[in-house]
Design brief:
Helix content is 35%, strand content 21%. The chain is α/β, with parallel strands linked by helices. Helix 4 packs parallel to helix 10 and helix 6 runs parallel beside helix 8.
C-alpha cells in the first residue's frame, strides 16, 4: 500500500486532482472516492481511459495496469496527501469558519489580498473533509497567501480540518443557531467553531476577532490567544467602521487605530449584516500591509454572483437573492435588513430552514413572527416546516412549485423582494416569476 510521501512524488508530476469521471483533466490523478450512492473504484478504468495518468484505488481492479495506485483508504490518502503538501508550503493560510457569512467573507478577503499578493481561496463551498484537501492540493508554488473556508455540522470537524490546512491566521465570522441537528445544541455550535481558536492559540497563530460580538469575545477570553487583531464598530478596535448607507448597496466608512484617517468604500453588496464581513476583510488587508486605496478597490470590485446578498433587477421587481443558505440567525438578519431599507413596496418570500433538528418547529415560528412585524405588501412562507404554522395573515405553500404557481397567477410587481431559504428549497425556480 502506498503512503502519502510516496504518493506525493506522483502528485508533483501530476498536480491536478480529479474525483469525478465526468470531468477528467488530462494527466490528472483520479481519486476513487466512495459515497452513499457511488463507489469511485468502479470508475477507475474509465478515468484512465479519459486521460487520468493514475487512479488511486482501495479495491482490486481487473488486470495488472501499473497506473492503479493501491492505498488502504482513498479518502484518508487524499487527506494525508493534502496534509503533506501543506507542510511543504511556507505561506500564510487564513482559515475561516462561522455560522453565517463564511463564503462572502472569504471572497472579500481574497478580493482585498489579491490586490497585492498572488492568492488562492476555496472555490465555491468546498469546505468539508473532501473540499478542504482538494483546495490545499490546488495551491501552487506561485501562491503567496491562501484563504481556506472550513465548514462543519458536528463537533470535531473544524479541529480535523485545521490539522490538514494548518492555518496561521483565522477568524470566526459569528456563531448562530444552525446545524443544530448535528451539534445538538447552541453550546455544541460554540464548541465546534471554537476549535479554530483552539488551533490558533496552540500554534501561536493570529486571530481576527469581531470584538463587538459578545459571544466571540467570550470564546476568545476562554483561551490563551497571544496574537489578536480586533475589528468591529467601536473605536478601540484595531480596525473600526460603520455603515454609512444601505440604499440598498452598502457604503462603509472605516479607520485603522494607528492612523485614525477615515476611508469610505462603496460596495456591490446588499444587507447591513455584511458590514462586519467587510470590516473583517479590511482588518486582514491592513494586517498584511495592503494600502487603504487597494483595500477600497478590492472591496468595490467584488460582485456577488452566488445568491448570497445578491441584488438582481428584473422587469417587474428588485430582488435580494439570498437563498444559498438559511438558518435562524441569518433569517433574522435578512428580515431586519429589509425592515431598514427604503422602498415604496416590499415583499417577503421565505423558504424552510434545514438541519434545525428538534428546534425546527419553534425556530420557524419565530421567523414567521419576525416577518409579520416587517411592513410588506405580501409575505409568502414556503416549505413543509413553515406550512405547519399556516395562518390567515400570510400565504403558506408546501412546495416551491406551489409558490411558483401562486406567483404566476398573482404576480408581485414594483417591489423590493427578499428571497431567503435553505439551498434545498431551490428558490432559483421563483426568479423567473418575479
Amino acid at each position: 500500500m502506498m503512503e502519502a510521501e510516496s504518493l506525493y512524488s506522483y502528485y508533483l508530476k501530476h498536480p491536478v486532482i480529479s474525483t469525478d469521471t465526468r470531468n477528467i483533466p488530462p494527466n490528472s490523478l483520479f481519486f476513487a472516492l466512495k459515497g452513499e450512492r457511488f463507489n469511485g473504484n468502479q470508475f477507475a478504468a474509465q478515468a484512465l481511459d479519459k486521460g487520468a495518468s493514475y487512479a488511486i484505488v482501495d479495491e482490486p481492479q481487473d488486470g495488472d495496469d501499473q497506473r492503479y495506485l493501491y492505498v488502504s483508504d482513498v479518502l484518508t490518502s487524499l487527506q494525508e496527501l493534502a496534509r503533506h503538501h501543506r507542510s511543504q508550503l511556507g505561506i500564510p493560510v487564513v482559515g475561516i469558519t462561522g455560522t453565517n457569512g463564511k463564503t462572502t467573507t472569504k471572497e472579500l478577503i481574497q478580493a482585498v489580498l489579491s490586490q497585492q499578493f498572488s492568492t488562492y481561496a476555496t472555490k465555491g463551498n468546498l469546505n468539508n473533509h473532501i473540499g478542504v484537501p482538494l483546495t490545499i492540493l490546488s495551491i501552487t508554488a506561485q501562491t503567496e497567501i491562501a484563504i481556506i473556508e472550513m465548514g462543519a455540522n458536528h463537533v470535531g470537524e473544524i479541529a480535523f480540518l485545521c490539522g490538514i490546512a494548518e492555518p496561521t491566521h483565522g477568524l470566526i465570522t459569528n456563531v448562530g443557531r444552525a446545524h443544530l441537528e448535528g451539534f445538538g445544541s447552541f453550546d455544541g455550535v460554540k464548541k465546534a467553531k471554537g476549535e479554530l481558536y483552539d488551533y490558533l492559540a496552540s500554534h501561536n497563530g493570529t486571530l481576527f476577532l469581531q470584538n463587538d460580538n459578545p459571544i466571540l469575545r467570550e470564546m476568545v477570553a476562554q483561551r490563551h490567544v497571544r496574537q489578536l487583531v480586533t475589528y468591529g464598530f467601536s473605536p478601540e478596535n484595531s480596525v473600526s467602521g460603520k455603515l454609512v448607507s444601505a440604499n440598498p448597496l452598502l457604503d462603509i466608512q472605516w479607520a485603522a487605530s494607528e492612523s485614525r484617517s477615515h476611508h469610505t468604500v462603496c460596495t456591490q453588496l446588499t444587507g447591513a449584516y455584511n458590514t462586519e464581513n467587510i470590516l473583517a476583510a479590511i482588518a486582514i488587508g491592513q494586517h498584511f500591509g495592503v494600502s487603504p486605496e487597494q483595500i477600497g478597490e478590492g472591496i468595490n470590485g467584488y460582485q456577488p454572483t452566488n445568491n448570497r446578498s445578491q441584488l438582481t433587477k428584473t422587469d417587474r421587481n428588485t430582488l435580494i437573492c439570498d437563498y444559498y443558505n438559511a438558518n435562524a440567525s441569518s433569517m433574522a438578519a435578512a428580515l431586519e435588513n429589509l425592515r431598514t431599507l427604503a422602498a415604496d413596496r416590499k415583499a417577503i418570500v421565505l423558504g424552510d430552514m434545514f438541519e434545525m433538528g428538534n428546534d425546527s418547529y419553534e425556530e420557524h415560528r419565530k421567523v414567521i413572527e419576525t416577518a409579520l412585524s416587517v411592513e410588506a405588501a405580501r409575505r409568502l412562507f414556503v416549505g413543509k416546516a413553515f406550512y405547519e404554522h399556516r395562518q390567515n395573515e400570510a400565504e403558506f405553500y408546501e412546495t416551491t412549485e406551489a409558490a411558483k404557481e401562486a406567483l404566476t397567477q398573482t404576480p408581485i410587481q414594483n417591489a423590493l423582494v427578499l428571497l431567503k431559504a435553505s439551498r434545498g428549497m431551490a428558490f432559483e425556480k421563483l426568479v423567473d416569476t418575479l
